[in-house]
Amino acid sequence: MWKTYAYIISFLILPGTSTIMAQIQPEDSVLIPLKIRAGIEVSGPIIYLTGKNNLSTEGYISVDLNEKLCLYAGVGYSKFKYSQYNYSYQNKGIFFKTGIDINLLKPEISMGKYWAGIGLRYGLSAYNSETPSFWYRNYWGTVTSSLGPSARMGHFLEFSPGVRAELFRNFSIGWSVSLRRLIYSGTNKDLSPIYFPGYGNGAKPFSTGISYFLVFNIPFKKIKVEIKKEIPEEVEETTETEERTSVTNK
After folding, report:
1. Taking 80 as the threshold, does the pLDDT of residue 57 lie above it?
2. 164-209 residue pLDDT tens
3. Which residue has the higher pLDDT, 89 or 119?
4. For position 244, what pLDDT does the model report?
5. DSSP for the chain?
6. So what's the pLDDT on residue 123?
7. pLDDT in tens, 108-156
């Protein structure tokens, strides 16, 4: 009871004291800002500008549902060229991704600024591919031909762990690793595309990649999230009781 009176007196007489006491008290909740994010992938365009023939660019928008989950929607464009000694190949198209992001950090650590978790995506790709020229030799000599453009659609699943951190107000950077599983490449196995947008080599059942993002954040709401306190485990006295019992029996 006297502690309560002391606190009330300190609050009335010494405002600074009450502030210090409030800071000492452990917080049981934190305010987390929910945000809308717009991100752009930067490594693809940079690689293209260094003189590579292949271009891949991607952007996304995500919306926080709570401190752990957010909805994700992405779109990208790809242009791919490849040539061997006896053929050339071209592919270009767009791809879409949709899914969720899961933040594995505790709320008191993330504070709406930091993210470390996984993304689960479904990807759909629409593209045109062609073989402008190819040749081969047979019994009668060398044959030269080509395959004209053909429109295809393929889809895949993506598992994407990564991290993101806010550098300054409403601006973040991050990276993620993409682990993809092919569902359908748009053709049969004998005509699998060398590449299709958003996935990679259509002849392989799995593909990987890494992306670097610049992210712009727009806070739209704050929510109060309770901090789960760790309850210390009760010390079991079984061992001590057994020792006493054994001594008594002796």
Report:
1. yes
2. 999 999 999 999 999 999 999 888 766 778 888 999 888 899 999 9
3. 119
4. 55
5. -HHHHHHHHHHHH-HHHHHHHHHHSPPSEEEEEEEEEEEEE-HHHHHHHTT-S-EEEEEEEEEESSSSEEEEEEEEEEEEEEE-SSEEEEEEEEEEEEEEEEE-S-HHHHTTTEEEEEEEEEEEEEEEEEEEEEEEEETTEEEEEEEEEEEEEEEEEEEEEEEEEEEETTEEEEEEEEEEEEEE-SS-GGG--S-BTTTB-TTSSEEEEEEEEEEEEEEEEEEEEE--PPPPPPPP-HHHHHHHHHHHH-
6. 97
7. 999 999 999 999 999 999 998 877 776 677 777 677 776 767 888 999 9
Rounded Cα–Cα distance for residues 62 and 72 (Å): 4
Contact indicator for 118, 220 with CB cutoff of 8 Å = no
Q: What are the chain's domains?
A: 35-221 (2.40.160)
**What tokens appear for 57 in the block?**
């660019």
Adjacent-strand bridge partners of 28: none
What is the rounded distance in angstroms from the CA atom of residue 227 to the CA atom of residue 29?
5
Q: What would the two tokens of residue 150 be?
A: 């053909």
Q: What is the pLDDT of residue 140?
A: 76
Question: Rounded to whole angstroms, how far apart are CA atoms 24 and 34?
Answer: 27
Q: Which residues contact 97 (CB under 8 A, 6 or more apart)?
A: 60, 72, 73, 74, 75, 76, 121, 122, 123, 124, 158, 198
